[in-house]
Write a structure and sequence with these properties.
The structure is a homodimer of 285-residue chains.
Chain A lengths: L7 H9 L12 H15 L6 H8 L13 H13 L16 H19 L15 H13 L7 H32 L3 H6 L2 H4 L6 H8 L9 H22 L26 H11 L3
The structure holds a DNA duplex (30 and 30 nucleotides).
DNA sequence: CCTTTGCTGTTTACGACGTACACGTAGTAC
DNA sequence: GTACTACGTGTACGTCGTAAACAGCAAAGG
Protein backbone atom coordinates (compact mmCIF):
# COMPACT_ATOMS: atom_id res chain seq x y z
CA UNK A 1 0.00 0.00 0.00
CA UNK A 2 2.81 2.35 0.89
CA UNK A 3 3.78 4.54 -2.01
CA UNK A 4 0.78 3.47 -4.04
CA UNK A 5 -0.83 6.90 -3.92
CA UNK A 6 0.80 7.69 -7.23
CA UNK A 7 -0.32 4.49 -8.91
CA UNK A 8 -3.30 5.50 -11.08
CA UNK A 9 -4.65 2.00 -11.53
CA UNK A 10 -4.76 1.37 -7.81
CA UNK A 11 -7.64 3.79 -7.39
CA UNK A 12 -9.53 2.05 -10.16
CA UNK A 13 -8.81 -1.31 -8.58
CA UNK A 14 -10.19 -0.27 -5.20
CA UNK A 15 -13.37 1.04 -6.77
CA UNK A 16 -14.14 -1.80 -9.08
CA UNK A 17 -13.18 -4.93 -7.24
CA UNK A 18 -16.11 -6.54 -5.50
CA UNK A 19 -16.22 -6.31 -1.74
CA UNK A 20 -13.97 -9.10 -0.58
CA UNK A 21 -15.33 -11.16 2.28
CA UNK A 22 -13.69 -9.77 5.38
CA UNK A 23 -15.52 -10.27 8.63
CA UNK A 24 -12.26 -10.17 10.54
CA UNK A 25 -11.70 -7.59 13.26
CA UNK A 26 -9.52 -4.58 12.69
CA UNK A 27 -9.61 -2.06 9.94
CA UNK A 28 -10.91 -2.74 6.48
CA UNK A 29 -11.72 -0.67 3.45
CA UNK A 30 -15.45 -1.23 3.82
CA UNK A 31 -15.41 -0.17 7.46
CA UNK A 32 -13.42 2.96 6.68
CA UNK A 33 -15.78 3.93 3.89
CA UNK A 34 -18.80 3.36 6.09
CA UNK A 35 -17.39 5.47 8.89
CA UNK A 36 -16.42 8.19 6.46
CA UNK A 37 -19.95 8.28 5.05
CA UNK A 38 -21.30 8.68 8.57
CA UNK A 39 -18.97 11.57 9.28
CA UNK A 40 -19.79 13.28 5.99
CA UNK A 41 -23.51 12.78 6.52
CA UNK A 42 -23.22 14.54 9.85
CA UNK A 43 -20.70 17.24 9.12
CA UNK A 44 -20.52 17.67 5.37
CA UNK A 45 -17.63 17.02 3.07
CA UNK A 46 -15.64 19.92 4.49
CA UNK A 47 -16.06 18.39 7.93
CA UNK A 48 -14.75 15.05 6.75
CA UNK A 49 -11.18 14.59 7.90
CA UNK A 50 -8.98 11.57 8.13
CA UNK A 51 -8.56 12.21 11.83
CA UNK A 52 -12.29 12.14 12.50
CA UNK A 53 -12.78 8.95 10.53
CA UNK A 54 -9.94 7.30 12.37
CA UNK A 55 -11.22 8.49 15.75
CA UNK A 56 -14.66 7.12 14.99
CA UNK A 57 -13.12 3.74 14.31
CA UNK A 58 -10.78 3.87 17.29
CA UNK A 59 -7.57 3.85 15.31
CA UNK A 60 -4.89 6.37 14.62
CA UNK A 61 -5.10 8.69 11.68
CA UNK A 62 -2.28 7.16 9.74
CA UNK A 63 -3.69 3.68 10.00
CA UNK A 64 -6.24 4.63 7.34
CA UNK A 65 -3.49 5.12 4.82
CA UNK A 66 -2.81 1.40 4.92
CA UNK A 67 -6.14 0.88 3.17
CA UNK A 68 -6.88 4.08 1.27
CA UNK A 69 -4.35 6.03 -0.78
CA UNK A 70 -5.66 9.38 0.40
CA UNK A 71 -8.63 11.55 1.11
CA UNK A 72 -9.62 12.09 -2.52
CA UNK A 73 -9.76 8.40 -3.26
CA UNK A 74 -11.75 7.85 -0.10
CA UNK A 75 -14.35 10.28 -1.38
CA UNK A 76 -14.52 8.36 -4.66
CA UNK A 77 -15.17 5.20 -2.71
CA UNK A 78 -17.83 6.87 -0.59
CA UNK A 79 -19.62 8.12 -3.69
CA UNK A 80 -19.86 4.74 -5.23
CA UNK A 81 -20.81 3.13 -1.95
CA UNK A 82 -23.86 5.32 -1.38
CA UNK A 83 -24.91 5.04 -5.00
CA UNK A 84 -25.48 1.38 -4.37
CA UNK A 85 -28.34 2.40 -2.08
CA UNK A 86 -30.38 3.76 -4.93
CA UNK A 87 -31.76 0.87 -7.00
CA UNK A 88 -31.95 1.46 -10.72
CA UNK A 89 -35.32 1.32 -12.35
CA UNK A 90 -35.34 -1.61 -14.74
CA UNK A 91 -33.95 -0.83 -18.18
CA UNK A 92 -36.32 0.52 -20.79
CA UNK A 93 -38.26 -1.98 -22.85
CA UNK A 94 -36.53 -3.35 -25.92
CA UNK A 95 -39.01 -1.55 -28.16
CA UNK A 96 -38.69 2.03 -26.97
CA UNK A 97 -41.91 3.85 -26.27
CA UNK A 98 -41.87 7.30 -27.83
CA UNK A 99 -41.98 9.95 -25.18
CA UNK A 100 -41.00 7.58 -22.40
CA UNK A 101 -37.58 9.22 -22.21
CA UNK A 102 -39.02 12.07 -20.22
CA UNK A 103 -40.62 9.95 -17.55
CA UNK A 104 -37.46 7.85 -17.23
CA UNK A 105 -35.19 10.84 -16.97
CA UNK A 106 -37.49 12.44 -14.46
CA UNK A 107 -37.57 9.35 -12.29
CA UNK A 108 -33.78 9.21 -12.45
CA UNK A 109 -33.49 12.84 -11.48
CA UNK A 110 -35.86 12.42 -8.56
CA UNK A 111 -34.01 9.35 -7.36
CA UNK A 112 -30.72 11.24 -7.49
CA UNK A 113 -32.36 14.11 -5.69
CA UNK A 114 -33.53 11.77 -2.97
CA UNK A 115 -30.02 10.35 -2.67
CA UNK A 116 -28.63 13.84 -2.28
CA UNK A 117 -31.07 14.51 0.49
CA UNK A 118 -29.80 11.47 2.35
CA UNK A 119 -26.16 12.24 1.63
CA UNK A 120 -25.92 15.96 1.03
CA UNK A 121 -22.14 15.89 0.69
CA UNK A 122 -22.58 14.19 -2.69
CA UNK A 123 -23.24 17.59 -4.18
CA UNK A 124 -20.11 18.98 -2.56
CA UNK A 125 -17.81 16.61 -4.40
CA UNK A 126 -16.05 18.78 -6.89
CA UNK A 127 -13.34 18.37 -9.41
CA UNK A 128 -13.21 16.79 -12.81
CA UNK A 129 -11.00 13.90 -11.82
CA UNK A 130 -13.21 11.74 -9.72
CA UNK A 131 -13.13 8.15 -10.82
CA UNK A 132 -16.55 6.67 -11.37
CA UNK A 133 -17.22 3.36 -9.71
CA UNK A 134 -19.48 0.62 -11.00
CA UNK A 135 -22.59 2.09 -9.42
CA UNK A 136 -21.88 5.54 -10.73
CA UNK A 137 -21.36 4.26 -14.24
CA UNK A 138 -24.52 2.19 -14.02
CA UNK A 139 -26.53 5.29 -13.16
CA UNK A 140 -24.89 7.24 -15.94
CA UNK A 141 -25.51 4.46 -18.45
CA UNK A 142 -29.11 4.31 -17.34
CA UNK A 143 -29.70 8.01 -17.90
CA UNK A 144 -28.00 7.88 -21.27
CA UNK A 145 -30.11 4.94 -22.36
CA UNK A 146 -33.22 6.92 -21.46
CA UNK A 147 -32.55 9.44 -24.21
CA UNK A 148 -31.07 7.00 -26.69
CA UNK A 149 -33.89 6.58 -29.17
CA UNK A 150 -35.07 10.16 -29.28
CA UNK A 151 -33.53 11.38 -32.50
CA UNK A 152 -30.90 13.39 -30.63
CA UNK A 153 -27.34 13.22 -31.86
CA UNK A 154 -24.87 11.36 -29.63
CA UNK A 155 -23.27 14.59 -28.53
CA UNK A 156 -26.69 16.00 -27.68
CA UNK A 157 -27.57 12.96 -25.59
CA UNK A 158 -24.39 13.36 -23.59
CA UNK A 159 -24.97 17.08 -23.18
CA UNK A 160 -28.58 16.59 -22.10
CA UNK A 161 -27.72 14.05 -19.43
CA UNK A 162 -24.82 16.16 -18.27
CA UNK A 163 -27.06 19.19 -18.01
CA UNK A 164 -29.55 17.37 -15.82
CA UNK A 165 -26.75 16.04 -13.64
CA UNK A 166 -25.15 19.40 -13.14
CA UNK A 167 -28.53 20.91 -12.40
CA UNK A 168 -29.06 18.33 -9.67
CA UNK A 169 -25.74 19.16 -8.07
CA UNK A 170 -26.30 22.87 -8.27
CA UNK A 171 -29.69 22.65 -6.60
CA UNK A 172 -28.47 20.25 -3.96
CA UNK A 173 -25.53 22.50 -3.22
CA UNK A 174 -27.97 25.24 -2.34
CA UNK A 175 -29.52 23.13 0.38
CA UNK A 176 -26.20 21.77 1.62
CA UNK A 177 -24.74 25.18 2.03
CA UNK A 178 -27.61 26.63 4.01
CA UNK A 179 -27.58 23.55 6.21
CA UNK A 180 -23.83 23.81 6.72
CA UNK A 181 -23.96 27.46 7.62
CA UNK A 182 -26.78 26.91 10.08
CA UNK A 183 -24.91 24.01 11.65
CA UNK A 184 -21.62 25.79 11.96
CA UNK A 185 -22.89 29.18 13.04
CA UNK A 186 -25.85 28.10 15.09
CA UNK A 187 -27.82 30.94 13.53
CA UNK A 188 -30.81 30.16 11.33
CA UNK A 189 -31.01 31.53 7.83
CA UNK A 190 -33.82 33.93 8.61
CA UNK A 191 -32.13 35.21 11.74
CA UNK A 192 -28.91 35.83 9.86
CA UNK A 193 -30.49 37.82 7.07
CA UNK A 194 -32.84 39.47 9.51
CA UNK A 195 -29.94 41.02 11.38
CA UNK A 196 -28.78 42.77 8.21
CA UNK A 197 -31.41 45.50 8.16
CA UNK A 198 -28.89 47.97 6.85
CA UNK A 199 -28.77 45.92 3.67
CA UNK A 200 -32.48 45.88 3.07
CA UNK A 201 -32.74 49.57 3.65
CA UNK A 202 -30.65 50.07 0.53
CA UNK A 203 -32.79 47.95 -1.73
CA UNK A 204 -35.57 50.49 -2.22
CA UNK A 205 -33.84 51.95 -5.23
CA UNK A 206 -34.42 48.79 -7.25
CA UNK A 207 -37.91 48.84 -8.73
CA UNK A 208 -38.30 45.26 -9.92
CA UNK A 209 -36.80 43.90 -6.73
CA UNK A 210 -39.17 45.86 -4.55
CA UNK A 211 -42.08 44.99 -6.82
CA UNK A 212 -41.35 41.27 -6.47
CA UNK A 213 -40.76 41.68 -2.76
CA UNK A 214 -44.06 43.43 -2.22
CA UNK A 215 -45.87 41.01 -4.51
CA UNK A 216 -44.85 38.22 -2.12
CA UNK A 217 -42.61 36.49 -4.62
CA UNK A 218 -40.08 35.80 -1.88
CA UNK A 219 -42.67 34.74 0.67
CA UNK A 220 -44.18 32.04 -1.50
CA UNK A 221 -41.30 30.96 -3.70
CA UNK A 222 -41.41 28.28 -6.31
CA UNK A 223 -39.74 25.00 -5.38
CA UNK A 224 -36.52 25.63 -7.24
CA UNK A 225 -35.84 21.95 -7.86
CA UNK A 226 -39.27 21.31 -9.33
CA UNK A 227 -39.21 24.51 -11.31
CA UNK A 228 -35.78 23.93 -12.77
CA UNK A 229 -36.34 20.28 -13.57
CA UNK A 230 -39.55 21.10 -15.42
CA UNK A 231 -37.90 23.86 -17.43
CA UNK A 232 -34.90 21.76 -18.37
CA UNK A 233 -36.98 18.77 -19.39
CA UNK A 234 -39.21 21.08 -21.39
CA UNK A 235 -36.17 22.47 -23.11
CA UNK A 236 -34.90 19.02 -23.97
CA UNK A 237 -38.34 18.01 -25.17
CA UNK A 238 -38.42 20.97 -27.49
CA UNK A 239 -35.08 19.97 -28.96
CA UNK A 240 -36.29 16.43 -29.48
CA UNK A 241 -39.39 17.72 -31.22
CA UNK A 242 -37.28 19.89 -33.45
CA UNK A 243 -35.07 16.94 -34.33
CA UNK A 244 -38.19 14.96 -35.08
CA UNK A 245 -39.56 17.60 -37.36
CA UNK A 246 -36.38 17.81 -39.33
CA UNK A 247 -37.07 14.33 -40.49
CA UNK A 248 -38.82 15.87 -43.44
CA UNK A 249 -40.89 13.86 -45.79
CA UNK A 250 -41.57 11.21 -43.20
CA UNK A 251 -44.83 10.90 -41.29
CA UNK A 252 -44.24 11.73 -37.64
CA UNK A 253 -46.50 8.89 -36.57
CA UNK A 254 -46.21 5.92 -38.88
CA UNK A 255 -42.89 6.75 -40.55
CA UNK A 256 -44.25 6.36 -44.07
CA UNK A 257 -43.14 8.93 -46.63
CA UNK A 258 -45.30 11.99 -47.06
CA UNK A 259 -45.81 13.69 -50.37
CA UNK A 260 -44.61 17.26 -50.11
CA UNK A 261 -46.93 19.92 -51.51
CA UNK A 262 -45.49 22.14 -54.20
CA UNK A 263 -46.00 25.27 -52.08
CA UNK A 264 -46.83 26.12 -48.50
CA UNK A 265 -45.78 24.46 -45.30
CA UNK A 266 -44.48 20.88 -45.64
CA UNK A 267 -46.83 18.33 -44.16
CA UNK A 268 -45.96 16.46 -41.00
CA UNK A 269 -48.37 13.58 -41.28
CA UNK A 270 -49.31 11.22 -44.07
CA UNK A 271 -53.03 11.12 -43.36
CA UNK A 272 -55.82 12.62 -41.30
CA UNK A 273 -55.74 9.52 -39.13
CA UNK A 274 -52.09 10.05 -38.23
CA UNK A 275 -52.60 13.72 -37.56
CA UNK A 276 -55.43 12.95 -35.20
CA UNK A 277 -53.34 10.28 -33.53
CA UNK A 278 -50.54 12.81 -33.00
CA UNK A 279 -53.04 15.25 -31.55
CA UNK A 280 -54.27 12.68 -29.09
CA UNK A 281 -50.71 11.64 -28.28
CA UNK A 282 -49.81 15.19 -27.34
CA UNK A 283 -52.53 14.94 -24.79
CA UNK A 284 -54.46 17.78 -23.24
CA UNK A 285 -52.61 21.09 -23.13
CA UNK B 1 -11.95 47.36 13.58
CA UNK B 2 -10.89 44.84 16.20
CA UNK B 3 -13.77 42.75 17.38
CA UNK B 4 -16.00 43.93 14.58
CA UNK B 5 -16.08 40.55 12.88
CA UNK B 6 -19.28 39.81 14.76
CA UNK B 7 -20.97 43.05 13.79
CA UNK B 8 -23.37 42.13 10.99
CA UNK B 9 -23.86 45.64 9.73
CA UNK B 10 -20.16 46.24 9.39
CA UNK B 11 -19.96 43.86 6.44
CA UNK B 12 -22.83 45.65 4.78
CA UNK B 13 -21.17 48.98 5.40
CA UNK B 14 -17.91 47.91 3.77
CA UNK B 15 -19.72 46.68 0.69
CA UNK B 16 -22.07 49.57 0.17
CA UNK B 17 -20.12 52.66 1.05
CA UNK B 18 -18.53 54.26 -1.96
CA UNK B 19 -14.80 53.99 -2.34
CA UNK B 20 -13.47 56.73 -0.13
CA UNK B 21 -10.66 58.80 -1.61
CA UNK B 22 -7.50 57.33 -0.16
CA UNK B 23 -4.39 57.88 -2.23
CA UNK B 24 -2.24 57.64 0.87
CA UNK B 25 0.49 55.04 1.12
CA UNK B 26 0.07 52.00 3.29
CA UNK B 27 -2.71 49.51 3.34
CA UNK B 28 -6.26 50.25 2.29
CA UNK B 29 -9.36 48.26 1.66
CA UNK B 30 -9.24 48.87 -2.08
CA UNK B 31 -5.63 47.76 -2.30
CA UNK B 32 -6.31 44.62 -0.32
CA UNK B 33 -9.26 43.72 -2.50
CA UNK B 34 -7.28 44.32 -5.66
CA UNK B 35 -4.41 42.14 -4.48
CA UNK B 36 -6.81 39.43 -3.39
CA UNK B 37 -8.46 39.41 -6.81
CA UNK B 38 -5.07 38.99 -8.41
CA UNK B 39 -4.23 36.07 -6.17
CA UNK B 40 -7.58 34.41 -6.78
CA UNK B 41 -7.34 34.96 -10.53
CA UNK B 42 -4.02 33.17 -10.53
CA UNK B 43 -4.60 30.42 -8.00
CA UNK B 44 -8.31 30.03 -7.56
CA UNK B 45 -10.40 30.66 -4.49
CA UNK B 46 -8.88 27.73 -2.65
CA UNK B 47 -5.45 29.20 -3.30
CA UNK B 48 -6.49 32.52 -1.85
CA UNK B 49 -5.10 32.92 1.64
CA UNK B 50 -4.67 35.90 3.85
CA UNK B 51 -0.95 35.21 4.02
CA UNK B 52 -0.55 35.34 0.25
CA UNK B 53 -2.50 38.55 -0.08
CA UNK B 54 -0.43 40.14 2.66
CA UNK B 55 2.82 38.93 1.12
CA UNK B 56 1.86 40.36 -2.23
CA UNK B 57 1.33 43.73 -0.60
CA UNK B 58 4.48 43.51 1.50
CA UNK B 59 2.72 43.50 4.86
CA UNK B 60 2.19 40.94 7.54
CA UNK B 61 -0.79 38.65 7.51
CA UNK B 62 -2.52 40.15 10.48
CA UNK B 63 -2.31 43.65 9.13
CA UNK B 64 -5.15 42.80 6.76
CA UNK B 65 -7.46 42.29 9.70
CA UNK B 66 -7.26 45.99 10.42
CA UNK B 67 -9.24 46.61 7.23
CA UNK B 68 -11.25 43.45 6.56
CA UNK B 69 -13.14 41.49 9.20
CA UNK B 70 -12.12 38.13 7.77
CA UNK B 71 -11.65 36.02 4.72
CA UNK B 72 -15.34 35.54 3.97
CA UNK B 73 -16.05 39.23 3.96
CA UNK B 74 -13.02 39.78 1.76
CA UNK B 75 -14.52 37.41 -0.79
CA UNK B 76 -17.78 39.37 -0.69
CA UNK B 77 -15.84 42.53 -1.42
CA UNK B 78 -13.94 40.87 -4.25
CA UNK B 79 -17.16 39.69 -5.84
CA UNK B 80 -18.69 43.09 -5.92
CA UNK B 81 -15.45 44.67 -7.08
CA UNK B 82 -15.13 42.52 -10.19
CA UNK B 83 -18.83 42.88 -10.98
CA UNK B 84 -18.18 46.54 -11.53
CA UNK B 85 -16.11 45.55 -14.56
CA UNK B 86 -19.14 44.27 -16.40
CA UNK B 87 -21.25 47.19 -17.60
CA UNK B 88 -24.97 46.66 -17.55
CA UNK B 89 -26.84 46.89 -20.80
CA UNK B 90 -29.20 49.85 -20.59
CA UNK B 91 -32.55 49.13 -19.00
CA UNK B 92 -35.31 47.83 -21.20
CA UNK B 93 -37.49 50.36 -22.97
CA UNK B 94 -40.40 51.73 -21.01
CA UNK B 95 -42.84 50.01 -23.34
CA UNK B 96 -41.68 46.39 -23.12
CA UNK B 97 -41.23 44.64 -26.42
CA UNK B 98 -42.83 41.20 -26.31
CA UNK B 99 -40.20 38.50 -26.64
CA UNK B 100 -37.35 40.83 -25.81
CA UNK B 101 -36.93 39.14 -22.44
CA UNK B 102 -35.08 36.28 -24.07
CA UNK B 103 -32.50 38.41 -25.82
CA UNK B 104 -31.96 40.44 -22.67
CA UNK B 105 -31.57 37.40 -20.47
CA UNK B 106 -29.24 35.81 -22.97
CA UNK B 107 -27.05 38.88 -23.15
CA UNK B 108 -26.95 38.95 -19.36
CA UNK B 109 -25.99 35.31 -19.20
CA UNK B 110 -23.24 35.71 -21.76
CA UNK B 111 -21.88 38.75 -19.95
CA UNK B 112 -21.80 36.81 -16.69
CA UNK B 113 -20.14 33.95 -18.52
CA UNK B 114 -17.49 36.28 -19.82
CA UNK B 115 -16.93 37.62 -16.33
CA UNK B 116 -16.48 34.10 -15.02
CA UNK B 117 -13.90 33.44 -17.67
CA UNK B 118 -11.92 36.43 -16.48
CA UNK B 119 -12.38 35.61 -12.80
CA UNK B 120 -13.01 31.89 -12.60
CA UNK B 121 -13.07 31.90 -8.81
CA UNK B 122 -16.47 33.65 -8.96
CA UNK B 123 -18.05 30.27 -9.57
CA UNK B 124 -16.23 28.81 -6.60
CA UNK B 125 -17.86 31.17 -4.14
CA UNK B 126 -20.26 29.01 -2.23
CA UNK B 127 -22.55 29.42 0.65
CA UNK B 128 -25.91 31.04 1.07
CA UNK B 129 -24.73 33.88 3.23
CA UNK B 130 -22.76 36.03 0.92
CA UNK B 131 -23.80 39.63 1.12
CA UNK B 132 -24.59 41.18 -2.21
CA UNK B 133 -22.95 44.49 -2.94
CA UNK B 134 -24.36 47.30 -5.05
CA UNK B 135 -23.02 45.86 -8.29
CA UNK B 136 -24.32 42.40 -7.56
CA UNK B 137 -27.77 43.72 -6.75
CA UNK B 138 -27.74 45.85 -9.90
CA UNK B 139 -27.09 42.78 -12.01
CA UNK B 140 -29.78 40.83 -10.21
CA UNK B 141 -32.27 43.64 -10.60
CA UNK B 142 -31.42 43.84 -14.27
CA UNK B 143 -32.08 40.17 -14.87
CA UNK B 144 -35.32 40.31 -12.94
CA UNK B 145 -36.48 43.31 -14.92
CA UNK B 146 -35.86 41.36 -18.11
CA UNK B 147 -38.58 38.86 -17.30
CA UNK B 148 -40.89 41.32 -15.62
CA UNK B 149 -43.58 41.81 -18.24
CA UNK B 150 -43.82 38.25 -19.45
CA UNK B 151 -46.93 37.05 -17.72
CA UNK B 152 -44.93 34.97 -15.25
CA UNK B 153 -45.90 35.11 -11.60
CA UNK B 154 -43.49 36.89 -9.25
CA UNK B 155 -42.31 33.61 -7.80
CA UNK B 156 -41.72 32.25 -11.29
CA UNK B 157 -39.66 35.27 -12.28
CA UNK B 158 -37.44 34.80 -9.25
CA UNK B 159 -37.13 31.09 -9.92
CA UNK B 160 -36.30 31.62 -13.59
CA UNK B 161 -33.54 34.11 -12.88
CA UNK B 162 -32.20 31.93 -10.11
CA UNK B 163 -32.15 28.94 -12.40
CA UNK B 164 -30.11 30.77 -15.02
CA UNK B 165 -27.72 32.02 -12.37
CA UNK B 166 -27.15 28.63 -10.85
CA UNK B 167 -26.67 27.17 -14.30
CA UNK B 168 -23.96 29.70 -14.98
CA UNK B 169 -22.13 28.82 -11.80
CA UNK B 170 -22.43 25.10 -12.40
CA UNK B 171 -21.00 25.35 -15.90
CA UNK B 172 -18.25 27.69 -14.85
CA UNK B 173 -17.34 25.38 -12.00
CA UNK B 174 -16.67 22.67 -14.53
CA UNK B 175 -14.04 24.76 -16.25
CA UNK B 176 -12.55 26.07 -13.02
CA UNK B 177 -12.07 22.63 -11.63
CA UNK B 178 -10.32 21.19 -14.64
CA UNK B 179 -8.07 24.23 -14.75
CA UNK B 180 -7.32 23.92 -11.06
CA UNK B 181 -6.46 20.25 -11.27
CA UNK B 182 -4.22 20.80 -14.26
CA UNK B 183 -2.49 23.66 -12.50
CA UNK B 184 -1.95 21.82 -9.24
CA UNK B 185 -1.02 18.44 -10.60
CA UNK B 186 0.83 19.52 -13.71
CA UNK B 187 -0.91 16.73 -15.59
CA UNK B 188 -3.29 17.56 -18.40
CA UNK B 189 -6.83 16.25 -18.38
CA UNK B 190 -6.30 13.86 -21.27
CA UNK B 191 -3.09 12.53 -19.82
CA UNK B 192 -4.75 11.89 -16.50
CA UNK B 193 -7.67 9.96 -17.88
CA UNK B 194 -5.42 8.32 -20.43
CA UNK B 195 -3.37 6.69 -17.68
CA UNK B 196 -6.49 5.00 -16.32
CA UNK B 197 -6.76 2.29 -18.97
CA UNK B 198 -7.93 -0.19 -16.41
CA UNK B 199 -11.07 1.90 -16.02
CA UNK B 200 -11.94 2.01 -19.69
CA UNK B 201 -11.44 -1.71 -20.01
CA UNK B 202 -14.40 -2.16 -17.71
CA UNK B 203 -16.79 0.04 -19.67
CA UNK B 204 -17.51 -2.47 -22.44
CA UNK B 205 -20.41 -3.91 -20.49
CA UNK B 206 -22.42 -0.70 -20.90
CA UNK B 207 -24.14 -0.67 -24.29
CA UNK B 208 -25.30 2.93 -24.53
CA UNK B 209 -21.99 4.22 -23.24
CA UNK B 210 -20.00 2.26 -25.80
CA UNK B 211 -22.45 3.21 -28.54
CA UNK B 212 -21.99 6.89 -27.78
CA UNK B 213 -18.25 6.44 -27.47
CA UNK B 214 -17.98 4.73 -30.82
CA UNK B 215 -20.35 7.20 -32.43
CA UNK B 216 -17.85 9.93 -31.54
CA UNK B 217 -20.14 11.68 -29.10
CA UNK B 218 -17.23 12.28 -26.77
CA UNK B 219 -14.84 13.34 -29.52
CA UNK B 220 -17.09 16.09 -30.84
CA UNK B 221 -19.07 17.16 -27.80
CA UNK B 222 -21.63 19.90 -27.68
CA UNK B 223 -20.55 23.13 -26.04
CA UNK B 224 -22.17 22.48 -22.71
CA UNK B 225 -22.71 26.16 -21.92
CA UNK B 226 -24.39 26.88 -25.24
CA UNK B 227 -26.42 23.71 -25.07
CA UNK B 228 -27.60 24.25 -21.53
CA UNK B 229 -28.40 27.93 -21.98
CA UNK B 230 -30.48 27.19 -25.06
CA UNK B 231 -32.42 24.42 -23.32
CA UNK B 232 -33.10 26.49 -20.22
CA UNK B 233 -34.22 29.55 -22.17
CA UNK B 234 -36.41 27.28 -24.31
CA UNK B 235 -37.93 25.87 -21.16
CA UNK B 236 -38.65 29.32 -19.77
CA UNK B 237 -40.08 30.42 -23.10
CA UNK B 238 -42.44 27.47 -23.09
CA UNK B 239 -43.66 28.44 -19.64
CA UNK B 240 -44.20 32.01 -20.74
CA UNK B 241 -46.17 30.81 -23.74
CA UNK B 242 -48.28 28.63 -21.51
CA UNK B 243 -48.96 31.56 -19.20
CA UNK B 244 -49.87 33.62 -22.23
CA UNK B 245 -52.30 31.06 -23.49
CA UNK B 246 -54.07 30.87 -20.21
CA UNK B 247 -55.16 34.43 -20.75
CA UNK B 248 -58.26 33.02 -22.36
CA UNK B 249 -60.69 35.21 -24.19
CA UNK B 250 -58.02 37.80 -24.92
CA UNK B 251 -56.32 38.18 -28.25
CA UNK B 252 -52.66 37.22 -27.95
CA UNK B 253 -51.63 40.12 -30.15
CA UNK B 254 -53.82 43.13 -29.60
CA UNK B 255 -55.30 42.25 -26.24
CA UNK B 256 -58.89 42.76 -27.35
CA UNK B 257 -61.49 40.27 -26.17
CA UNK B 258 -62.12 37.28 -28.43
CA UNK B 259 -65.51 35.70 -28.83
CA UNK B 260 -65.32 32.09 -27.78
CA UNK B 261 -66.94 29.61 -30.12
CA UNK B 262 -69.63 27.41 -28.64
CA UNK B 263 -67.67 24.23 -29.42
CA UNK B 264 -64.15 23.32 -30.44
CA UNK B 265 -60.83 24.85 -29.51
CA UNK B 266 -60.99 28.36 -28.07
CA UNK B 267 -59.55 30.96 -30.39
CA UNK B 268 -56.27 32.71 -29.65
CA UNK B 269 -56.62 35.70 -31.93
CA UNK B 270 -59.37 38.15 -32.59
CA UNK B 271 -58.85 38.39 -36.31
CA UNK B 272 -57.05 36.97 -39.31
CA UNK B 273 -54.75 39.96 -39.23
CA UNK B 274 -53.65 39.25 -35.69
CA UNK B 275 -53.17 35.60 -36.39
CA UNK B 276 -50.93 36.41 -39.34
CA UNK B 277 -49.06 38.93 -37.24
CA UNK B 278 -48.44 36.29 -34.58
CA UNK B 279 -47.23 33.91 -37.26
CA UNK B 280 -44.74 36.41 -38.55
CA UNK B 281 -43.69 37.30 -35.02
CA UNK B 282 -42.83 33.70 -34.31
CA UNK B 283 -40.41 33.97 -37.19
CA UNK B 284 -39.12 31.19 -39.41
CA UNK B 285 -39.08 27.78 -37.76
C1' DC C 1 5.25 70.92 27.09
C1' DC C 2 3.26 66.25 28.34
C1' DT C 3 -0.33 62.96 28.16
C1' DT C 4 -4.17 60.64 26.45
C1' DT C 5 -6.61 58.47 22.75
C1' DG C 6 -7.10 55.89 18.67
C1' DC C 7 -5.53 54.05 14.37
C1' DT C 8 -2.20 51.04 12.14
C1' DG C 9 0.88 47.31 11.65
C1' DT C 10 3.55 43.39 14.12
C1' DT C 11 4.52 39.30 16.79
C1' DT C 12 3.45 35.14 18.71
C1' DA C 13 0.52 31.39 19.29
C1' DC C 14 -3.38 27.93 18.86
C1' DG C 15 -5.81 24.30 16.82
C1' DA C 16 -7.23 22.40 12.67
C1' DC C 17 -5.89 20.01 8.22
C1' DG C 18 -3.40 16.12 4.74
C1' DT C 19 0.22 13.14 4.69
C1' DA C 20 5.55 11.75 4.42
C1' DC C 21 8.55 8.90 6.98
C1' DA C 22 10.50 5.85 10.26
C1' DC C 23 9.32 2.51 13.50
C1' DG C 24 7.10 -1.25 15.87
C1' DT C 25 4.69 -5.88 16.00
C1' DA C 26 2.45 -9.93 14.63
C1' DG C 27 1.38 -13.63 11.46
C1' DT C 28 3.14 -16.69 7.77
C1' DA C 29 6.26 -19.27 4.46
C1' DC C 30 10.44 -21.34 3.98
C1' DG D 1 14.84 -19.86 13.29
C1' DT D 2 14.43 -16.50 9.88
C1' DA D 3 13.22 -13.79 6.45
C1' DC D 4 9.08 -11.40 4.51
C1' DT D 5 4.90 -9.07 4.53
C1' DA D 6 0.75 -6.72 6.20
C1' DC D 7 -0.89 -3.78 9.61
C1' DG D 8 -0.97 -0.17 12.96
C1' DT D 9 1.61 3.79 15.48
C1' DG D 10 4.17 8.17 16.61
C1' DT D 11 6.31 12.09 15.20
C1' DA D 12 6.87 15.81 12.20
C1' DC D 13 6.28 19.34 8.40
C1' DG D 14 3.89 22.87 6.08
C1' DT D 15 -0.54 24.80 5.26
C1' DC D 16 -4.61 27.42 6.83
C1' DG D 17 -7.76 31.32 9.59
C1' DT D 18 -7.47 34.22 13.28
C1' DA D 19 -7.29 35.49 18.61
C1' DA D 20 -4.54 38.32 21.73
C1' DA D 21 -1.15 41.31 23.23
C1' DC D 22 1.96 44.78 21.88
C1' DA D 23 4.55 48.83 19.39
C1' DG D 24 4.82 53.12 16.65
C1' DC D 25 2.76 57.32 15.60
C1' DA D 26 -0.53 61.28 14.79
C1' DA D 27 -3.97 64.33 16.47
C1' DA D 28 -6.26 66.33 20.48
C1' DG D 29 -6.65 68.26 25.08
C1' DG D 30 -4.71 69.96 29.11
Amino acid sequence: MRGRAEDPDHGVELLWRGAGAEPRPGLSLARIVRAAVEVADAEGLAGLSMRKVADRLGFTTMSLYRHVPGRDQLVDLMRDAVMAEQPLTPPAAAAPVPGAWRATLEVCARASWELRRRHPWLAEVRGSRHLPGPNGVAHYEHMLSAVRHTGLTPAEMIAAVGLVGRFLDAEALLLVETARQERESGVSEEEWWGSRDSLFERLDRYPTLTYLWEAGGYDHPEDSFEFGLARILDGIELLIQKRDETRDGICQICGKPVETPASGRPRKYCSHACRQRAYRQRGPA
